């Protein structure tokens, strides 16, 4: 996997999860507008994450929210310049940033701007060389209060991907470990020990193809992982997989 593929895939995942800043999202949407393959890829990611959206309980908007939002949008419309106008104007070497973005966010946007320029030049398919693999199942992991903590995508080829959607505190001297339960006969199998609550690719053992309603969970284990090969610590979050029609 190339660095360009890593960048575009990571930005696509973060955009689908709503983790980009408004300025980053605007840049990425400009790239999507110029590359239908990338837009289709993000659409598939959003479909796969639909169970996460459905797991959230409806919350009433605070009083006066609509009026404040309209006022804010009016201010943004008057003061902000188009972030990606230069990138789509025919000059792929210039990516202007809105004047009201501070210096620090401008530095944070440098990586995404570079990906935008290269992405427009190469196209999503050209950058990746091949279509991004689609997961066979997606599991939204909830804690004991019903709050979404992480999403696991299992590709069925001894690899899986986990992304955290809320903060998890890991005490010093402990690790997070991901597990799945292919069957009651096999028992729980480790998908890997995580280096903190951050997006990671998991390389587990050779297991049967993941199935609909298969259990996935993350636990708190001693530093370096479970000493027994089975979950020993408290369960942080767990969930049942949803097949993706593959």
Class per helix and strand makeup: alpha+beta
Specify the overall morphology.
Answer: globular
Biggest β-sheet strands, sense, barrel: 8 strands, antiparallel
Strand content: 15-25%
Within the largest sheet, what's the order of strands? 5-4-7-8-1-2-3-6
Task: Compute the number of structural domains.
Answer: 2
What is the residue-averaged pLDDT? 74
- Show unreliable segments: 1-5, 79-108
How many helices does DSSP assign? 8
Q: Tally of extended strands?
A: 8
Order of helices and strands: HHHHHHHHEEEEEEEE
**How far do the termini sit from each other?**
23 Å
Helix proportion range: 25-40%
Radius of gyration: 20 Å
Give the helix/strand layout.
Elements: H1 3-17, H2 22-34, H3 36-48, H4 50-55, H5 65-79, H6 103-108, H7 110-122, H8 124-128, E1 137-142, E2 148-154, E3 159-164, E4 174-181, E5 189-194, E6 200-203, E7 215-222, E8 235-243
Antiparallel strand pairs: 1-2, 1-8, 2-3, 3-6, 4-5, 4-7, 7-8
Description of the molecule:
The chain is of the alpha+beta class and 246 residues long. It folds into 2 domains: 3-56 and 64-128, no CATH class; 137-243, Immunoglobulin-like (Sandwich), CATH 2.60.40. Helices cover 35% and strands 22% of the residues. It is built from 8 helices and 8 strands, in the order H-H-H-H-H-H-H-H-E-E-E-E-E-E-E-E. The chain has an 8-stranded antiparallel beta sheet. The longest helix is centred in the N-terminal third of the chain and has 15 residues, at 3-17. It is globular and about 60 Å long. Mean pLDDT is 74; it is low at 1-5 and 79-108. The chain crosses the membrane at residues 108-128. It holds the Pfam family RskA_C.
């Amino acid at each position: 996997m190339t660095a360009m593929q890593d960048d575009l895939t990571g930005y696509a995942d973060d955009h689908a999860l709503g983790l980009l800043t408004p300025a980053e999202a605007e840049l990425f949407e400009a790239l999507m507008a110029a590359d239908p393959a990338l837009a289709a890829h993000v659409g598939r990611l959003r479909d796969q994450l639909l169970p996460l959206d459905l797991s959230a309980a409806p919350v009433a908007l605070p009083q006066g929210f609509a009026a404040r939002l309209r006022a804010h949008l009016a201010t943004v419309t008057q003061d902000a310049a188009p972030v990606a106008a230069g990138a789509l104007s025919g000059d792929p070497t210039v990516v202007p940033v809105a004047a009201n973005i501070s210096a620090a966010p401008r530095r944070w946007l440098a990586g995404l701007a570079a990906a935008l320029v290269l992405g427009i030049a190469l196209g999503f398919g050209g950058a990746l060389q091949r279509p991004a693999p689609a997961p066979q199942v997606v599991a939204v992991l909830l804690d004991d209060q019903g709050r979404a903590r992480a999403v696991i995508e299992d590709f069925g080829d001894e690899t899986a991907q986990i992304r955290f959607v809320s903060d998890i505190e890991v005490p010093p001297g402990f690790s997070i470990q991901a597990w799945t339960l292919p069957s009651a006969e096999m028992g729980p199998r480790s998908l890997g020990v995580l280096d903190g609550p951050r997006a990671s690719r998991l390389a587990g053992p050779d297991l049967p193809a993941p199935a609909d309603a298969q259990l996935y969970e993350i636990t708190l284990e001693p530093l370096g992982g479970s000493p027994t090969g089975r979950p020993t610590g408290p369960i942080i979050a767990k969930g049942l997989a949803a097949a993706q029609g593959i």
